[in-house]
Amino acid sequence: MDVSGKVAIVTGAGAGIGAALARGLAGAGAKVVLADLAVAVVEVGAELGERAVSVVGDVTDVAVIRELVARAESEFGPVDLYFANAGIFGARGLDGSDEQWAAAMEVNVMAHVRAAQVLIPGWEQRGSGYFVVTASAAGLLTQIGSAPYAVTKHAAVGFAEWLNITYGDKGIRVSCVCPMGVDTDLLRAGNEDFTEAAANEEAIRAVVAAGEVLTPEQVAADILSGVADERFLILPHAQVLEMYRHKSADYDRWLAGMRRYQATLQR
């Protein structure tokens, strides 16, 4: 996949990985529709000039997703790539309310599902399209300190797998991005709905201690490289693959090791 001349939508594009992706796509010659709840997305879009337009809106809402597609088509042409990048951390877990669990499910999973429902029928008719899910290493491994994040990121990986299997022979490409620590607001401060400070600190320590914290620009470059190669699993942190292999080779041993690692974080 050569993104030059292609039309892309990037969600969560007001900052972090999404903003870096939008810049990388525009720099590679793509035309980009940026979406975010934060009005900062307008500034990012303005920075990119005539190759970009911005929409402020909630991408869990199918009406907003349809608006993004309509803006892309009216400004640039049919959508070629969709980067489902928006995400939230969620509450600690058993102490989280139904509303907090539902919010994590909406943003981290259902936003992807609804975007696919809007885009894939048309892509199937065209015989081309590319759907990129930003999940997390937590979707392959787990997330100490936040059950909703671990559970919903597992679900995001599962949905991306299903899309790939179901539509991969129909000209539709699917990639799933699973980084560990990335220097974003989500890592530095936690999401405002992550209400327990101690749990937040534990979750952040778990990520930071596990490996290098990458910049959004590094991750965006890895994503675009993975898209160019049409790789399903894009791992900005190469060690995640080895961790995943250990997990699958001996699940009980891996679980015991994770419990030991969690204990070190709580000291």
UniProtKB/TrEMBL annotation:
Signal peptide: none annotated. InterPro entries: NAD(P)-bd_dom_sf (IPR036291), SDR_fam (IPR002347). The lineage of its organism: Bacteria, Bacillati, Actinomycetota, Actinomycetes, Mycobacteriales. Keywords: Oxidoreductase. This is 3-phenylpropionate-dihydrodiol/cinnamic acid-dihydrodiol dehydrogenase. Its EC number is 1.3.1.87. Belongs to the short-chain dehydrogenases/reductases (SDR) family. It comes from the Bacteria. Pfam families: adh_short. GO terms for molecular function: 2,3-dihydroxy-2,3-dihydro-phenylpropionate dehydrogenase activity. CDD domains: SDR_c (cd05233). It is an enzyme of class 1 (oxidoreductase).
